[in-house]
Amino acid sequence: MPHKHNANRRHHIPKMSFKVQNWAEYEAGLRRRGSLTLWIEDAALDRWQSCGPDGQCRYSAAAIQTCLMLRIAFKLALRQTEGLMDSVITLMGVNISAPDHTTVSRRAANLPPLPAELPSGALHVLIDSTGLEVFGAGQWLVERHGVKSRRTWRKLHLAVDANSGMIVAQILTDQHADDPSQVAPLLDQINGEIARVMADGAYDGAPTYQTIAQHGDGIKVVIPPRATAVASCELGPPTQRDRHLAAINENGRLAWQSATGYGQRSLVETAMGRYKALIGARLRARGFAAQTEAAIGVAVLNRMLATGRPKPVRTERPAA
Predict the structure, then answer these.
(1) Is 136 in contact with 272 (CB distance < 8 Å)?
(2) Run of H or E residues at 185
(3) pLDDT tens, residue by residue, 164-219
(4) What is the pLDDT of residues 136-162, one digit of tens each?
């Protein structure tokens, strides 16, 4: 008779393991991310600033964006960013000046949106959101003054291309914004062709499908219906959502995930984890400037990813 603890032991399923195929290239890219070899292109120099007869200089949006990207990439304070920018300009020997930290702080709230560099070909868009904490007194306020601190959060909504891992659209909202309402603003930022949109069950519903259809009739939508979902009562051929629901009812949810490639949705979670690890899980700015900070963070992350990205391949599971 088997022991009791053996009889109740759960069957252990080994985790999937992956191996990076392009390790040498990826390792070189990781080193380039920390490189201090900085240069300003001639085209950017020509429109860096314009100075009037009174000596007052007006800096272009590109100049402010450059300072903010350096700040986020190297996790610097604004004054330190000004010093770094000054040193780069001095080493280059060009006749421009660095924006002072107060100018960068003031202009950050009104910068135009940064255009995303879209990968070539039709996009496979993955959509999800994550929470970012607003920088504040936090625990110090509680311990020093006994004041209850209410944490303030923002939600960063991302659209990621599954093939390249690049973030192709982003928007920052307060913590009360629901995820489906941000599908349209995200897709509006994408000027390229969209072949497929994938999201988790929080986005399920006819309004989401209708929003995506407005960006192209041929877009394939992969969103798992909720457990309480029912087929639509519309006349005519079944909708995409109805076909997903029928496939799950007939073959089960796991078979549906395998048939639709739903496992790729985890790549957007990887992108969110990468953002928090490399850019940070907190926002320093508040108000409108926080939107700029998140957009600059996405631009920096895309640049880092362009220098080197791992190409993992699944290895064989060891025999039991």
Answers:
(1) no
(2) helix 183-188
(3) 889 999 999 988 899 999 999 999 999 889 999 999 999 999 999 999 999 988 99
(4) 555 555 555 555 555 678 999 999 999
Cβ within 8 Å of residue 14, ≥6 positions away: 317, 318
What SS3 state is found at 129? strand
Alpha carbon 131 to its chain's center: 11
Give residue 229's pLDDT: 84
Q: Alpha helices of 214-287 — where are they, by DSSP H?
A: 240-251, 253-260, 266-278
Q: Is residue 288 part of a domain?
A: no
Count the domains in the chain.
2
Instruction: Report the sign of the C-alpha dihedral through residues 277, 278, 280, 283, in that order.
Output: negative
The model's pTM is 0.80
* Among candidate residues 56, 83, 110, the one where a domain is terminated: 110
> Which token pair is 289?
């400037």
Residue 11 pLDDT level (bands cut at 50, 70, 90): very low
298 closest CA partner among 196, 121, 161: 161
Same domain, 73 and 166: no
Q: Which of 110, 143, 175 is the last residue of a domain?
A: 110
User: Which amino acid appears at position 141 of this protein?
Assistant: L
DSSP conformational letter for 205 = S
Question: Containing H/E element for 70?
Answer: helix 61-73
**Exposed, middle or buried: residue 117 (CB in 10 Å: 0-12, 13-18, 19+)?**
exposed
Quote the domain boundaries for residue 88.
34-110
